[in-house]
Amino acid sequence: MSLLVVGLSHRSAPVSVLERAALNADAQTKLLHDTVAAEPATEAAVLATCNRIELYADVDKFHAGVAELSTLLAQHSGVGLEELTPYLYVHYEDRAVHHLFSVACGLDSMVVGEGQILGQIKDSLARAQDLHTAGKLLNDLFQQALRVGKRAHSETGIDRAGQSLVTFGLEQLAGGGDVQRWAAGRRALVIGAGSMSSLAAATLARAGVAEIVVANRTFDRAERLAEILQEADDNAVTARAVRMNAVPDELTRADVVVSCTGATGLVLTAESVAGAVEGRTGQPPATEPRFTAVRPEAPQPAADENCPLDLAAAQPGFSVLGEAAVAGMDAATLEQHATWAAGGNTRAAGGRTTESAEVDAELITALAATAATVGRIPERRRPEPVAERPAPVVFLLDLAMPRDIDAAVHRLAGARLVDIESLAEASADAPMAADVDQVRRIVSDEVAAFGAAMRAAHITPTVVALRTMAADVVAAEIARLHGRLPDLDDRQRGEIRQAVHRVVDKLLHAPTVRIKQLAAEPGGTGYADALRTLFDLDPETVASVSRAEDSTETKDRPA
Question: Pairing with 247, which of 155, 178, 323, 473 sits 20 to 30 Å away (CA)?
Answer without folding.
Answer: 178
